[in-house]
Write a structure and sequence with these properties.
about 210 residues, alpha+beta, Ubiquitin-like (UB roll), DNA polymerase, domain 1, five-stranded mixed sheet, globular, binds FE2/S2 (inorganic) cluster
């Protein structure tokens, strides 16, 4: 089932994911049944089997394979922050319900809300977190521009903006201000640093074009 809430911004591709929302939707329908006999029957179905126990998943995160033991309901955000070694805490837990974008990571290069994506849905796909962007300690143009343009106050939203802007400029280094705003439509900044963030994104685009991007 495709769930647009797992994809921040308006430019994310529609994907077939067994999302956290669809999981809750299923659980709600189950609760509405309300009968013990129904519950007993449901307990024997493959769906309820998926909800129990611990599974071992192999994830590819920032170019390295990593095994994590998690419950099937575990979100990618939870897996990154609490089940990886070392913990990857760059993606932030803020709303934990797909409304702020602080948890944004890339799945196969597309920005997604990791709080609305099951870890199991990331198997076989390339996960990139904000920790995986800088190579050998050198900041990316987006990260550098955010520092230079004072694009962060409390900083809780910053990793999510970095991931959304990075995906946008990878697709199109010459993205316009409107296109950058569109790409960041799923990211909220409660400190109100938007003008600085957008200035930084435009500057990063210019720097990338100067290096040969289009
Ligand atoms: S923490 Fe995931 S969208 Fe807010
Ligand atoms: S810098 Fe504080 S929420 Fe954006």
């Amino acid at each position: 089932m495709s769930d647009p809430q797992s994809t921040p911004g308006a430019q994310g591709a529609e994907r077939n994911v067994f999302s956290r929302r669809s999981l809750f939707r299923g659980a709600g329908a189950f609760a509405a049944g309300g009968l013990v006999a129904d519950a007993a029957r449901a307990a024997a179905t493959p769906t309820s089997t998926r909800l129990a126990g611990v599974v071992e998943l192999e994830l590819e995160i920032n170019g390295a394979k990593q095994k994590v033991s998690v419950e099937p309901r575990t979100t990618l955000l939870n897996a990154l922050r609490n089940h990886c070694t070392p913990p990857l805490t760059g993606a932030k837990v803020v709303c934990d319900r797909g409304s702020c974008g602080a948890c944004t990571v890339h799945l196969d290069g597309q920005p997604v809300y990791s709080c609305m994506t099951l870890a199991a849905d990331a198997v076989g796909r390339k996960v990139t977190t904000v920790e995986g962007l800088a190579k050998e300690g050198e900041l990316t143009e987006v990260q550098r521009a955010l520092c230079e343009h004072d694009g962060s106050m409390c900083g809780f939203c910053t990793p999510g903006f970095v991931m959304s802007i990075t995906a946008c400029l990878e697709r199109k280094p010459g993205a316009t201000l409107d296109e950058i705003k569109h790409a960041c439509a799923g990211n909220l900044c409660r400190c109100g640093t938007y003008p600085h963030v957008f200035e930084a994104a435009l500057a990063a685009g210019r720097a990338l074009r100067a290096k040969g991007g289009k």
